[in-house]
Amino acid sequence: MSTAQLVVQHLPYLRRYARALTGSQVAGDAYVAATLETLVNEPETLGRSTNVKADLFRVFTRIWNSLSVNGQTEQAQHDLPAEVRLGQITPLPRQAFLLSCLEGFSEEDAATILGVDVSEVRDLVDEAGRELAADMATEILIIEDEPLIAMDLEALVEGLGHNVTGVARTRTEAVKLASTKRPGLILADIQLADGSSGLDAVNDLLKSFEVPVIFITAYPERFLTGERPEPAFLIAKPFQPANVSAVISQALFFQQSARRREARATA
């Protein structure tokens, strides 16, 4: 397989990571596009190791942390699209947390991507976990038709300090539960028991209120094509508890950040 083919193979996961950092499909894809432009202009940046995926994420991280792209000066921020300006630079601890817990990189690969040593990666992940767990407890609605998976998710989110408002197996049940108690976050499978879609259920709910949504699917590549509006937060089945924890923390973090910006704007 050629290097270009390997890049294409890993691109959906880079896009997932990028949107987890920014909280936005548009902003995340802007950084990914900048990464691909760099690869075209500097093809030698890939192939420095046998791990093309790690190399790809390392190039992305260089772009992400660069002054010119992230716009750390007032003039640079002014020139960037609004969606990118709103996606503030994610601190290094949260980058380490997502690389390890969401993308499943080894400590060694995460250290290479971030340009730090392995012991620092461990410290950064621990720090991020403490920061992201603070003041983020909320009510969570689970939309999942497989009982064992639903039980695992319920135990997991309650272990993180959240409260589960209910578990829905169908689109109709989801709407009914949300009307009884409005959730602060939704975890939704995409294919449900009665043939209905978790996407449709969520769209029904979002007509009444805004809430962060995390979709869970066995086929994430089908929803990371760039051909239509995509879920901002996506977890692949079978999932690891650390993945779910990382994405929940990110979704709630961006929700709280948006609320703080709104409060400052109206103050």
TrEMBL record:
Q: Which GO terms describe its biological process?
A: phosphorelay signal transduction system
Listed name of the protein:
Response regulator
Checking PROSITE patterns in the record gives: RESPONSE_REGULATORY
Keyword Transferase belongs to the record: no
Q: Which residues form the Response regulatory domain?
A: 139-252
Q: Could you list this entry's UniProt keywords, alphabetically sorted.
A: Phosphoprotein, Transcription, Transcription regulation
Q: Which SMART domains match?
A: REC
Which Pfam family, any one, appears in the UniProt record? PhyR_sigma-like
Q: Which residues form a coiled coil?
A: none
Q: Which organism is it from?
A: Methylobacterium terricola
List residues modified as 4-aspartylphosphate: D189
Q: Which residues form the signal peptide?
A: none
| TM stretches of this protein | none
Q: Which CDD domains match?
A: REC_PhyR
Q: What is the lineage of its organism?
A: Bacteria, Pseudomonadati, Pseudomonadota, Alphaproteobacteria, Hyphomicrobiales
